[in-house]
Give the backbone structure.
Amino acid sequence: MEAKVLSISGQDTGRTVQLDDSIFAIEPNDHAIYLDVKQILANKRQGTHKSKERSEVSGSTRKLKRQKGTGTARAGSIKSPLFRGGGRVFGPVPRDYSFKLNKKVKLLARKSALTYKVKENAFIVVEDFNIETPKTKEFITICKNLNVADKKTIFVLSETNKNIYLSSRNLQQQKVVQASSLNTYEILHAKAMVLCESSVEVLHKMFKIS
């Protein structure tokens, strides 16, 4: 499969780049995507939630009243969950939400996400570019030329480019990532995907090695 290479001015350069069908044109697997996104979001959770149980709240352990003869329910401690200020029953405790996912499943999920982007025509290949000095205005101009200024867009670079990253950092809709760190959630979360020409080869090598 071939894709046109656009310039940063939004014009067709006349060149094309070859996209590997085994990466960008597979039969998407929705369940693999679900599992991968679930793991990514689970790994982001801190899991530091905590509420105090009856053994942890402050208060006297004195028995409030005699066991029988009061006409009301038995009560052994003011720290009982039944009383205001008492401990919480089965409250949240710190835990680790992360779980293991097979490497091949994650690989299939990323390929499926890339395939969806190509099928939805939300996929653009642009020539390699650089910004001499960090300027948000210059990056916005590039986005407008590519018709992605009003869309949540992910720019995929072949390697780290500090000036491009700093130029896009203040823009809520745009995000710049390296091809080697691209994940399924970022691909699907974006409404448009802009792939630098050299990053295509990085993705080819990354998926072939995997």
